[in-house]
Each structure stands twice: as structure tokens, then as C-alpha cells.
Amino acid sequence: MSDNGKRNADNGKPARIEIRAMEIGDLPEVYDLGEDLFTAERWRTLYRTWDEYELATLFASEGDLCIVAELDDDIVGFALGTILDKRGSAWVYGHLLWLGVDPKVGRRGVAAKLLERMTETFIVEGARILLVDTAADNEAALAFFRKNGFGDEEPHVYLSKNLTDDPEYKAHRKREKLRDAAARRRARKLRMQKRAGKPAEG
Ligand SMILES: CC(C)(COP(=O)(O)OP(=O)(O)OC[C@H]1O[C@@H](n2cnc3c(N)ncnc32)[C@H](O)[C@@H]1OP(=O)(O)O)[C@@H](O)C(=O)NCCC(=O)NCCS
How many domains does the chain have? Predict the structure, then answer.
């Protein structure tokens, strides 16, 4: 489905934004756009990390809830979600996990279109509540969600503890190093036996 978006600031023509299901061939482009948007330093407190594994897993398990926004054959936005059935709760939640729009088409309604399509899909999937989360200082996202009807804000605090000084951490790393060294010794021995034409020992 194509629909005419707001006016394109660059040439005054209407920007044609198409919202469609994400396809396997879109993964690299979506990944790259996410890399630009969800940078580690900006999102360091986020409990999720943007990586190939996260994207591929969501695509494989929640394909219906992965959509993209396309403009002139370029992917300029995406939304990825999941359905949450909370134990002990009759409510089904639609969790919008990742929403990203290329800044070059920012504030032209692309995220609003993605959200609209995600909302329709979440409803069809049985969701009664839509859930989003973002860093407390992400003013653009907060403004966007508030503008689009989200409320009931509940602040969360993330605390962290560096484990690298923990004795168990150090012992574990030492065991790993010993294991790696033993594996390297075994590989070297095999290579030498091969070179000498000897059959490998078990
Ligand atoms: C948040 C985000 C998805 C908004 O996308 P968008 O396509 O620009 O949003 P829309 O055009 O549909 O909506 C515009 C509204 O969003 C808010 N908004 C968007 N960018 C903003 C900014 N830089 N500063 C303040 N408000 C902003 C405003 O409410 C704006 O309305 P207005 O222009 O009338 O003030 C986009 O900025 C983005 O990808 N940010 C980085 C990733 C992110 O934070 N994702 C959300 C959490 S997963």
C-alpha cells in the first residue's frame, strides 16, 4: 500500500512513503539504519542491544511484527515488535521494541505511519495494551509517543555493577585462558603430526 506523505522538504514534491512488511533482503539496510540510530553510547542504559542477532531473531520469530517504511527504493524507517502474554495477567501486550526513522526524513510523519500499521497488526494479534520504552532523555521519542497518545509513564532505574573485580569472574577467565591454551597446544600437535605424515592421535 502506498500513501502520499507530507511534502518533501528538499524539492517540495509529496514524499511517497510506502509502509510494507519487512523482507529478508531488507535486513542489511535495516541493520545499518539501526546502527546509525541506536548507537552504544546513546543507548548504553538500554537493556536490549541493537545487533544482527536481535534483528534476525525478531524477523524469524515475529515476522508479522516487522515492518519498514520505503521512500524511492530506500528504507527510511522500520518498526519491530513482539507480543507479550504476561503471566498472571489477562492482558496481552503489544511491545513496540524498536522504532527508527532516518533523520533525513524526520518529522514528516514516517514514524506515525509505522506506528499506525503496527497498532493495526497488534490489535489483530490480540493485544489490548501497547507498550514502549525508551531512555528518559530521549526527548524526540518521548515527544513522539506523547503526541501519539501514549501516557501512564512509569520511570525505571537501571543500576549496574562491574563484575570484572569479582573473584568468580577472575577464576572463570583464568579457566577459559587455560582451556584456550590447551586447545591451541592440541591444534599445534595435530598440525605437526600431519606434517610428519603420522596418523592423528585421538
Ligand atoms: C522518535 C522517531 C522515531 C520519530 O520519527 P519521525 O518520523 O520524525 O516522527 P513523526 O514525523 O511521525 O512525528 C513527529 C513528532 O515526533 C516528535 N519529534 C520527532 N523528532 C523530534 C525532535 N528531534 N525533537 C523533538 N520532538 C521530535 C515531535 O512530537 C514531532 O511532532 P512535531 O513535528 O509536530 O513537533 C525518530 O526521531 C527516531 O528514529 N529517533 C531515534 C530512534 C528512537 O529514539 N526510537 C524510539 C524508541 S525505540
Answer: 2
